[in-house]
Amino acid sequence: MSLLQRLTALVGDAFVAEGADASAGQVVPSQRPELAQFQCNGAMGASKALGRNPRDLAEAVIARLDPSTFVETSVAGPGFINLAISGEALAAAIEAMHGDERVGHQMAGDPRAIVVDYGGPNVAKSMHVGHLRATIIGDSLKRIARFVGHRVWGDAHFGDWGTQMGQTIVGIAERYPDLPFFAADYDSEQNVDIPITLDDLQEIYPDVSRRAKEDEELAAAARKATLELQQGRPGYRDLWRHLYDVSLEAQRADFTDLGVEFDLWFGESTVHDRCAPIISNGQQAGVAVEDQGALVVHVDLPGDNREWPPLILAKSDGAYTYGTTDVATVDYRADELDAGEAWYVVDARQADHFEQVFRAARKLGVAPASMVLDHVKFGTMNGPDGRPFKTREGGILKLRDLIDMVTEAAMKRIEAQDLGADMEKDERFAIARQVGLAALKYGDLQNHRASDYMFDLDRFVSFDGKTGPYLQYAAVRIKSILRRVAEEGIEPGRAAAPINDGDEALMLQLVRLPEVIDRSLDSRAPNHIAEYTFELAAVFNRFYEQCHILSESDPIVQASWVTLVETTLAALTLLLDLLGIEVPARM
Ligand code: ARG
Q1: % of the chain beyond a pLDDT of 90
Q2: Residue 393 above 70 pLDDT?
Q3: pLDDT confidence of residue 468
Q4: Mind giving me the DSSP string for 464-478?
Q5: Measured by CB atoms within 10 angstroms of the end CB, which terminus of the chain is less buried, N or C?
Q6: Which of 118, 122, 248, 345 to mutate for ligand 1's pocket (most ligand atoms within 8 Å of CB)?
Q7: Does the CB atom of residue 122 touch ligand 1 within 6 A?
Q8: Which fold has domain 399-578?
Q9: Does 359 contact ligand 1 (Cβ within 6 A)?
Q10: How many angstroms separate the alpha carbon of residue 157 from the centre of ligand 1?
Q11: Closest Cα to atom 5, ligand 1: which residue?
Q12: How many angstroms is it from 570 CA to the middle of ligand 1?
């Protein structure tokens, strides 16, 4: 149990003894640390239900608390309870964290099965900033949920079944008419050498997509190709397989370089066979109905204050849509994976799409009532011009370009700071990559996901201020402090009560760690961890200025400080890992 949980339980018991609900005992870090380290604000709410004066209730609760834990308690204002715990109680909490590989965090007692749907790359299309944010935020949420103790799958939900496939097929037919895939008598047994690379695809698709907006004939041909692909035309299926493989391989390599892995690379196509039965069951139930030749689900609900367009399950030609495969994917996750939750880490601009999908999935009986479907929305990463960030003049973002760009910027900084001067080129490059990615990821995760932010590479790669590189550097520095301490033969010992405000502040910061992790998970917002990690590094710096470990004359204090430093390093390493940031071995 974390310190805050223990304090909450103690105060909760006191409230119960006064006839109130245990939930009134919630203890939080104090807003005014100069008065006390912790506080409880439950007396005001609880007093109403009991018909008592809130201050009197607070006094009665205090009278029931064990004085050996709480050195000082007082009531302030309308009934706030201030709680100052003893140095020994604080030290015991640190001691418990120090020996614990979970650094004091208690595994969830109710493990849930969660699919985190993030990344969302598409066959034949380049990734844009939305995919980058989805990747960074989704990967962090996956790591947090897994650490907390849930069973988690990260699924890339590869976009491989929509209109862009038909458009790409048509574009390839224009450019490579001699390929056998387009022949009516295509024979799938033949071995074809296919000259098309991902770079070609990234030209072909945007070209056709742009022209199809004006050229109705081309658009119709692309729709037909999409439909024929979905219906299983052998030449198209074989060509599709190639496009799929080429895209998957390249994109997976980019994700790997970002330090991101998926457990599932399922795509829209994975659930193709589920679509027809869902639709026919829906028709039988009267939920899927005809509308202007298409089959749709009406998703508006009583009480809506806006109109909701229906979700299209099959277009008038019979083709499935992005919505159809998303509904079928809910079915897959509920049915095959037995997932209790699915989190969609996707751009806020798709909010309507997901609301439609979730409503349709419930109406069609695909998502059980107990299943949590959550669109974890995020805002845009903008360039300095205030528009969605692009790596090239007029072009869209390529993950590869971006990784190269942040690595290069990090390398310049590393050289400017004269770090790693004694290293081989390879090692320096590896560190520059780690630093560049930390800059990119922390630059994103320090913001609440719902807000837009500006991509400011200069600031992100700086070793000063609230940045990923600063935090990496802090961790590396602590490692070197511990090396020096070990060289002097100083060993960690029992955590002792704090002796100044430097070590007390560090201890108080450390004991908050478990709650911060839980809060990030509950609100699906890694920025709480990002913020806390930065504070931890800052509080550590103040501690280190004030507490001179090497020259400390009291061996008990000295050994206790080493324990505190080790606990800080364990915490920093864990937290950075939850943000997807690696700590270099040295710098
Ligand atoms: N491929 C989609 C896109 O590029 C994102 C997929 C998000 N996940 C989902 N289940 N729809 O916009």
Answers
A1: 88
A2: no
A3: 98
A4: SSSSHHHHHHHHHHH
A5: N
A6: 122
A7: yes
A8: Isoleucyl-tRNA Synthetase; Domain 1 (1.10.730)
A9: no
A10: 7
A11: 120
A12: 36
CB atoms within 10 A of CB 548: 11
Q: Where are the domains of the chain?
A: 3-85, 163-257, 399-578
pLDDT value at position 127?
80
Expressed in angstroms and rounded, the spacing between residue 170 Cα and the centre of ligand 1 is 23
Q: What pLDDT score does 130 carry?
A: 84
Distance (Å, whole) CA 100 – CA 342? 31
119 lines ligand 1 (CB under 6 A): no
Q: Which two tokens stand for residue 161?
A: 């079944």
Cβ of residue 558 lying under 6 Å from some atom of ligand 1: no
Count of alpha carbons within 13 angstroms of residue 41, beta-carbon side: 4
Residue 116 tokens read as: 């985190």
CA end-to-end span of the chain, whole Å? 36
Q: Which CATH number fits domain 3-85: 3.10.350.10, 3.40.50.300, 3.30.1360.70, 3.40.50.10330?
A: 3.30.1360.70
pLDDT band of 395, cuts 50, 70, 90: low
Please state the rounded mean pLDDT for residues 53-64: 96
Does residue 323 have its Cβ closer than 6 Å to ligand 1? no
Burial of 34 (0-12, 13-18, 19+ CB in 10 A): exposed
Residue identifier of the C-alpha nearest atom 2 of ligand 1:
120
524 lines ligand 1 (CB under 6 A): no
Ligand 1 mean position to 519 CA, how many Å?
Answer: 26
Give percent above pLDDT 70 in the chain.
99
**Whole-structure pTM over 0.85, yes or no?**
yes
